[in-house]
From TrEMBL:
PANTHER family: NUCLEOID-ASSOCIATED PROTEIN YBAB
NCBIfam families with a match to the protein in the record: DNA_YbaB_EbfC
Alphabetized UniProt keyword annotations: Coiled coil, DNA-binding
UniProt cross-references to Pfam families, sorted A to Z: YbaB_DNA_bd
Keyword set includes Acetylation: no
Organism of origin: Amycolatopsis melonis
Superkingdom assignment: Bacteria
Protein name: YbaB/EbfC family nucleoid-associated protein
Length: 106
């Protein structure tokens, strides 16, 4: 039977914290280096963004420029941007999921 009043081993706790911190930092670096691509519903606009949230490109199909007015084209661009941000959030969550699951077990 485990003594509920026992003092935990502080060195062991500190080692666990260091290990988890290192793992989070490693995952953060991989997320920041990640690149995500997304598109508008009909692929008129494509966006590329990095894991740090910076967009590296926004490509607009020349036909879309001729076909849509400024208001509609801006909505299509927003659609692609939001799809990219959603995709990045999902990819980031997937990378951090093991660490979050491990923390919940403790």
């Amino acid at each position: 039977m485990t003594d509920p009043y026992a003092v935990p081993d502080m060195d062991e706790l500190l080692a666990q914290v260091r290990k988890q911190t290192e793992e989070v930092q490693r995952i953060q670096r991989t997320v920041e280096a990640m690149e995500v691509k997304a598109h508008s519903r009909q692929n008129e606009v494509s966006v590329t963004l990095r894991g740090d949230g910076r967009f590296t490109s926004i490509d607009i199909d020349p036909r879309a420029i001729r076909e849509y007015d400024a208001r509609n084209l801006s909505e299509i661009v927003l659609e692609a941007v939001n799809a990219g941000l959603q995709k990045l959030a999902e990819a980031s969550s997937a990378k951090f999921a093991p660490v979050i699951a491990a923390a919940k077990e403790v």
